[in-house]
Design a protein that fits this description.
Blueprint (H helix, E strand, L loop, with lengths): L9 H4 L3 H11 L7 H17 L6 H8 L1 E8 L10 E13 L2 E12 L9 E15 L2 E13 L9 H11 L2 H4 L5 E7 L3 E7 L7 E6 L11
Antiparallel strand pairs: 1-2, 1-8, 2-3, 3-4, 4-5, 5-6, 6-7, 7-8
Helix pairs in contact: 2-3
């Protein structure tokens, strides 16, 4: 156990990782922005990182890491609310090829450009990156392209630049502009992935992702 474990509440130290993970996954969609919730999330993340035994081989890491991951949380806090723009989901797609591969951060968005509350433009915004692994499981990110695509039947926005500006405000900055950042996988299982960012801008920021389809995450309960 690492020296940081002294800051982790005893009941979490004694709990199996899967149980801590389930507590985290249960809390994140219900958060209302209270300070004690953020403290709780931090305790859960610290406990998971403390219990994590890194994956031994690159092949296994690639197998465990590849695919689509829905972003649940960033300690960088999610972006600025905007009445014209709705972010429906943020997904990180990882395609692995041995020591390198691609990371695509994709936002599904709806835009009410002309009439308040009428979201008649919609589509996806993809941030395409290459990555290389140089030590352990650290992924060094290199931004390649931003791609905006409209959904079939969507109205074409009149101010595309304005839309991209709103997306940049709404997305956590590490998802919109991950250039020159590195990602360390600090916890990984069949359901969730915790990433610690390194790089001057966002040193120590944590992202929590859930494997797409692993758990039904919906902001509104039916």
């Amino acid at each position: 156990s690492s020296s940081s474990s002294s800051n982790i509440p005893k009941e979490l130290q004694d709990m199996p990782a899967a149980q801590v993970r389930d507590l985290l996954v249960d809390l994140l969609p219900r958060m209302t922005g209270q300070k004690d919730e953020f403290r709780q999330v931090e305790d859960y993340i610290n406990a998971l990182e403390d219990k994590y035994v890194p994956v031994q081989t690159l092949d296994f890491l690639n197998l465990a890491m590849g695919g689509d991951w829905q972003m649940l949380f960033s300690t960088n806090r999610l972006g600025i609310p905007n009445t014209k723009l709705r972010l429906r989901e943020l997904v990180q797609r990882i395609d692995t090829k041995n020591l390198d591969g691609t990371v695509t951060n994709m936002a599904r968005w709806d835009l009410a450009e002309e009439v308040p509350g009428v979201f008649d433009c919609s589509g996806t915004f993809s941030v395409k990156c290459d990555y290389g692994i140089n030590q352990g499981a650290r992924m060094n990110i290199d931004l390649k392209d931003h791609v905006l695509e409209l959904a079939r039947g969507s109205r074409v926005p009149t101010d595309v630049e304005g839309l991209v500006g709103m997306l940049s405000g709404a997305m956590p900055s590490e998802m919109f502009d991950p250039n020159e950042l590195a990602m360390d996988t600090t916890y990984l299982d069949e359901k969730i992935r915790v990433v610690r960012l390194t790089g001057s801008r966002l040193e120590g920021v944590r992202n929590v992702f859930i494997r797409s389809g692993a758990v039904e995450v919906s902001p509104t309960k039916n």
